[in-house]
Design a protein that fits this description.
By secondary structure, this protein is of the alpha+beta class. The protein contains 9 helices and 4 strands; from the N terminus they run ααααααβααβαββ. It has a 4-stranded mixed β-sheet with strand order 1-2-4-3. β3 and β4 form a beta hairpin.
Length: about 170
């Protein structure tokens, strides 16, 4: 199996178990992958590109470190093409409309997956209301899932603000 941005973390670690230590060395945040629940759920659906975004690591650096550790040649690509762009504050955001707060780090610290709780909180939002999701990394997989369900998300630091899409763009 080749190591590219589209490879899922679970598949990578299944094919190259020795790369788990390399991930830990790249960012201590990736030690969360040792949690069996996160390993079975998040790692199965999260791509290396998403891992780079979550870890705040240039994707080309992550890929090349993993490729080198597995004995492959460097990945040739335009680094600027791969970097996630920052998002300005959207027009729909107003701190006054934050009606719910959810700390995903507290749930993860207990060894649990917060995804179902986040989805339940979002399902209770009325139009215009905002959920503030606090987590120590950018939760790219849940953001993509929320987008597919009609929500818009704006991330700023450790806070992710979620609202129902009312035909406005984020």
């Amino acid at each position: 199996m080749d190591i590219t941005l589209d490879v899922k973390v679970g598949a990578l670690l299944e094919a190259y178990p020795q790369l788990e230590q390399t991930l830990y060395e790249i960012s201590p945040m990736f030690k969360k992958l040792s949690n069996p629940i996160l390993r079975k759920t998040v790692a199965r659906v999260t791509s290396l590109k998403q891992v780079a975004e979550v870890g705040g690591i240039p994707p080309v650096d992550l890929i090349n470190r993993l490729r080198e550790a597995a004995g492959f040649s460097p990945f040739e690509t335009d680094e600027a093409e791969m970097d996630a762009e920052g998002m300005p504050q959207p027009g729909w955001f107003d701190e006054a409309f934050v009606v719910k707060h959810f700390d995903a780090d507290a749930v993860i610290a207990k060894g649990q997956n917060p995804m179902d709780d986040i989805l339940k909180q979002c399902d209770c939002l009325q139009p215009g209301e905002i959920l503030q999701l606090t987590v120590s990394f950018r939760p790219v997989p849940i953001i993509k899932l929320l987008h597919s369900r009609g929500y818009v998300v704006w991330s700023s630091g450790s806070s992710n603000y979620i609202t129902r899409n009312s035909s406005t763009t984020d």
